[in-house]
Fold:
Amino acid sequence: YYFIGRSDLIQTQLTQKKLETNFSTFITKNAKNINEEEIYILFNKLRKTLLERPTDLKGFRLLVTTSLSLKEYQTARIAQETVIELSNPNVSVEDYILYLDLALLAAGGRVSLEASEVLQEAEVLYPQNEALIFFKALEHLEKREYQRAVKIFYFFQENDSLDIKKLELLKQKLLRLRI
Structure:
């Protein structure tokens, strides 16, 4: 099936590193203009400083926001992972959601095994959070558990409780399946 058409029939859920590597071959490097040069110098200085200060929670949060603004999603995801580790056991739901968003961006819209593990951890602490339920639907799609994803989609559609952009993303992914 791989070369005939539906490669998703044989492709399993992959690791974050594999997804990021595959996705990075499809995107071009960030366009660095003169104004961004200074930001990149400061960005690299921040990264070097954090190597010397591995427990600096504020520094890693700053690295996440800076990386995100520079579209350095892989760096932002790794920094957010460190934020979660340093914040443990007081990790907020927003920290988990940000990590899942970054993992999704870095992997080109796919849900990795690592993202699934973080999602599972977050669901235990925050079982009714709608954003986490949304990521659960994406995870079901990745694992080819289509009926579970459809149930979540209809739940959100009926309750009108999820952000319209996320609902639209879920709808588009389901429409691509043609199930």
Observations:
- Residues 34-52 form the longest helix (19 residues).
